[in-house]
Amino acid sequence: MAVPKRKMSKARRDKRRANWKLTVPGFVACPQCHELKMPHRVCPECGHYNGKVVIKAKAE
After folding, report:
1. Residue 13: helix, strand or coil by DSSP?
2. Does the CA dihedral 15-19-21-24 come out positive or negative?
3. Residue 12 belongs to what H/E stretch?
4. What positions belong to coiled-coil segments (predicted)?
């Protein structure tokens, strides 16, 4: 049975666990107002999602 010979420090353990994240998700242009937004989310500028108004747009 494998048993560690020495205690692994928290810093060394956390450095190893920190490298699993992938790249940052890209932004896409909203088809209604053409502002950049996160994919699969309501546009914060115009309030559209999937071609429908979901929330009221910000007052200007």
Report:
1. helix
2. positive
3. helix 10-17
4. none
Separation between Cα atoms, residue 20 and residue 46, nearest integer Å: 35
What tokens were used for 11? Answer: 């810093």
CA distances from 9 to 1, 6, 14, 42 (A): 22, 9, 9, 43
Q: How far apart are the first and last CA of the chain?
A: 67
Q: Torsion over CA of 18, 20, 26 and 27, rounded to 10 degrees? A: -50
pLDDT in tens, 1-60: 899 999 999 999 999 888 877 777 789 999 999 999 999 999 998 999 998 888 887 655
Q: Report the residue count for the chain.
A: 60
